[in-house]
Design goal:
single chain, about 250 residues, alpha/beta, Rossmann fold, seven-stranded mixed sheet, about 15% strand
Length: about 250
């Protein structure tokens, strides 16, 4: 039941990079040409039901993602590693920390979902819950989270690719994983170094959300607001994002 993944680099610092709800193992592709292959080894897994792991079924929870990531690290013979997580992946990397704290070197959250439950009003939940069956809902969500400022062509591409790469049942279940699960009490006070990066145009995961969650929970945490980016800085500002991530990992 090993997760499908892509690998980049052969450096001594091992990094597992987890994707978001609307992504897969290719999510960090636009920034790969800016990554240091000599310093870092990056592995980009796909969750069960997504991309290279689309054939794998499961319970589609954060605990399952964490168990699969740890098993993959075991297969790769990684004793310790850092984690990068985008959006939903930002919640999943915190679950890995809870399950295997002695193995995690650093966390980098890119527009990361906190470990608490995400508040929704009725209309908002209807929009997200309907996204499994409706590609237009996905497009609206991506547009809102990037500040309603980007080309319609890109929004349509992102929404369409998401629908192609993710099994509908997995996509629907992972919404409940990132929106409803709450393990915030299990992460508070952990002394792992954490960096959170949010786009200045992200209308969902904002700097204020980070200050009330990650920065309040993790004593060794820091925040960067990425100019000219929304919820997808790996697409919007890939070189700046890669530079920021690796500068933190090098410290």
């Amino acid at each position: 039941m090993a997760l499908g993944y892509q690998k980049f680099g052969d450096g001594p610092h091992k990094v597992m990079a987890l994707h978001g709800w609307l992504g897969d193992h290719t999510a960090y592709g636009p920034m790969r040409h800016a990554l240091s292959a000599d310093e870092f080894t990056y592995v980009f897994p796909a969750y069960r039901g997504y991309g290279l792991s689309r054939h794998l079924s499961g319970s589609y929870t954060n605990k399952e993602i964490a168990a699969d990531v740890i098993a993959l690290a075991d297969d790769l013979k990684w004793d310790t590693f850092s984690l990068v997580g985008h959006s939903m992946g930002g919640k999943a990397i915190q679950r890995v920390l809870v399950e295997a704290p002695q193995r995690v070197r650093k966390l980098v959250g890119v527009a990361p979902v906190p470990a608490a439950a995400t508040p929704f009003d009725e209309a908002g939940w209807g929009l997200f819950d309907g996204a499994a069956a409706n590609v237009e809902n996905r497009k609206i969500i991506i547009g809102f989270s990037t500040g309603n400022r980007l080309t319609d062509t890109w929004l349509a591409h992102m929404a369409s690719y998401s629908a192609q790469t993710a099994a509908p049942e997995a996509f629907a279940a992972y919404l409940r994983a990132w929106a409803k699960e709450d393990f915030s009490a299990e992460v508070q006070g952990r002394d792992v170094p954490v960096k959170v990066i949010v786009g200045e145009h992200d209308l969902a995961i904002s700097a204020d959300v980070m200050r009330g969650t990650f920065l309040a929970w993790y004593p060794k945490s820091e925040l960067e607001v990425m100019p000219n980016a929304g919820h997808y800085p790996m697409d919007e500002t890939p070189i700046a994002l890669a530079t920021s991530i690796e500068a933190f990992l090098r410290k």
